[in-house]
Amino acid sequence: MAGLFRNLFSPINMVLATRTISTSAICCKAQAGRHKRTKNRSKPLTYEQFNGPYQIHHRKSWNTWNTSKFYSLFTANLLDADDEIRASQTAVEDVFIRKFMFGTWHRLFVSDVIIKRRHNLIVITGIIVRSLQVRKLYFLIGYTEEMLSYIFKCPVKIELQSTPDRKDVVFKYV
């Protein structure tokens, strides 16, 4: 029995026992939304990508603007269950719109897709590359507006800006 206590309180076991709890500041380090630097600084970032998520509303704006619930600010009614359900539907619709835009406008967008909701109108904005003929560009705009209007049963408007080269949108290389 004495040998058991002698091995239990040996210097090696005491060192191992004191190192079981680790308290470090690394666990609290925020990693989300940060882009990893490359050795030769060859990764291009746009202005939206360069500013992290913690800088939203200081240097960066939201990618989705929903003004359809502003009527509740001017009335005395409290939020009811319909408004809460609509918020989740809006988020799902925004994901669908972004997937639809990147699938239809394949490799043409050089910026993020910005979705603005004004009452019953959905406005989709972004920056594209001028690599298409004008006829095809107008066809894609009309096709996208008609398809999304039919799917969401509300008017959809697309406002695009174009740039001659993808490098014009690059803000910084990391």
**Fraction in beta strands:** 15-25%
Going by helix content, strand content and strand pairing, the class is alpha/beta
Major sheet: size, sense and barrel closure? 4 strands, mixed
Overall spatial form: extended
Number of helices: 6
SSE string, helices as H and strands as E: HHEHEHHEEHEE
Radius of gyration, Cα only, in angstroms? 26 Å
Could you tell me the number of beta strands? 6
Query: Order of strands side by side in the largest beta sheet?
Result: 2-3-4-5
Overall pLDDT: 79
Quaternary structure type: single chain
The rounded distance between the terminal residues' Cα atoms is: 63 Å
Uncertain residue segments: none
Level of helix content? 25-40%
Description of the structure:
There is one protein chain. This protein is α/β, with parallel strands linked by helices. The chain is extended. It has helices at 2-8, 11-18, 47-50, 71-74, 81-104, 134-152; strands spanning 44-45, 64-66, 114-118, 121-129, 156-163, 172-173. The protein is built from six helices and six strands. The model has no long low-confidence stretch (mean pLDDT 79).
